[in-house]
Amino acid sequence: MSKWMALRSVGGEVIEQPRNERERWLVNTVATQARQAGIAMPQVAIYHAPDINAFATGARRDASLVAVSTGLLQNMSPDEAEAVIAHEISHIANGDMVP
Question: Count of domains in the chain?
Answer without folding.
Answer: 1
